[in-house]
Amino acid sequence: MSIYAEKIVMFDGDCSFCDSTVNFLFDKNTQRTLYFTSQQSELGMALLEKNNLPTDLNTIYFYSKGNVYEKSDAFFYIAKELDGRWKYVSLLKYIIPRLFADWCYDRIAKRRHLLLGKKDSCRLMTKEEQQYFLL
After folding, report:
1. What predicted TM-score, i.e. pTM, was given to this entire model?
2. What value does the mean pLDDT take over residues 27-55?
């Protein structure tokens, strides 16, 4: 499989919390280094299968140059791609132990539907934005 995007965020495509997070990431990545796909999409399923990873809608995955990161690791690697002060969140990876960061991540992930529910509609994108959302 040929993937032209080097950095792909894979998320739960039915989750409002995840959708809000993707919108935030897109808005804070003005360099447009990030691409997005849901785990339920053909590309998302193929990337997970290729890397022997399960579809886990409680987990965000980040594909970067042939490697796939999950949970807090994905969060910190994605933060490196953001603008301004947001990229400094990635430095927390060196301060917060991974087990604790993943524990915090799991607590939020398991309650994400309670926070914002499931989504009924998607962001209306411009033609320029559409190229960063992969199917």
Report:
1. 0.82
2. 91
Phi/psi of residue 4, nearest 5 degrees: -85, -20
Instruction: Specify the pLDDT at position 130.
Output: 75
CA distances from 94 to 72, 101, 110 (A): 12, 11, 25
What's the alpha-carbon Rg for the chain, to the nearest Å? 14
Q: Coil, strand or helix: which one is 26?
A: helix
What is the distance between the alpha carbons of residues 44 and 63, in angstroms, rounded to a whole number? 10
Tell me the pLDDT tens digit for each residue of 54-106: 888 888 999 998 899 999 999 999 999 999 999 999 999 999 999 999 999 99
Of 76, 79, 135, 70, the closest CA to residue 109 belongs to 70
In the numeric block, the tokens 């529910």 are attached to: 117
**Per-residue tokens: 135:** 């199917």
**Contact predicate 9/19, CB 8 Å:** no
Residue 114: the pLDDT is: 67
Q: How far apart are CA 64 and CA 79, in angstroms?
A: 13
One-letter amino acid for residue 44 of the chain:
G
Beta bridge partners of 62: 9, 69
